[in-house]
Amino acid sequence: xxxxxxxxxxxxxxxxxxxxxxxxxxxxxxxxxxxxxxxxxxxxxxxxxxxxxxxxxxxxxxxxxxxxxxxxxxxxxxxxxxxxxxxxxxxxxxxxxxxxxxxxxxxxxxxxxxxxxxxxxxxxxxxxxxxxxxxxxxxxxxxxxxxxxxxxxxxxxxxxxxxxxxxxxxxxxxxxxxxxxxxxxxxxxxxxxxxxxxxxxxxxxxxxx
Length: 209
Fold this sequence. Notes:
Helix content: 25-40%
Order of helices and strands: EEEHHHEHEHHH
Number of domains: 1
Number of helices: 7
Strand order of the largest sheet: 3-2-1-4-5
CATH topology: Nucleotidyltransferase, domain 5
């Protein structure tokens, strides 16, 4: 496996560093950052209730971005309730938005910790987060890896891939979750799902061998 530009090949310090998990959700104008803009981004500390943060620092982050390309799919736009024209007028320029997000990540991640992105179907959200960080800042605070809640759930429960959809996972843990497609709301719901799966994993006896 090759090491992405800007990443250290020496991982000896990374393996022992505790992680700070951050749930991230995005809304976009289409399926890929190659032709469609990132429209909004929400993030929340997975363990926000236990976080000890400096005064004035919130355990969550939200921003709407000015679109930097013109591609759009009507279905994707309708889901989030955005228009490209509206965001051109009210959104934050992408470079400023990603700088603010990077600064927030740095502030909420304790010294010596490594921030790790958590997503529900992380493959989709990761595409946009990684692309925009590298496009506008030249680096990604999350490095080059993330935790996918669906895959984590699959490994913990032995479920089928079909049964990793949000309604099935939420029902298993008695969580009342309905996607609003507000990126911050959805990031909070993802965090709740991740905590539930993590609790189940930690409650199971560890096999030896």
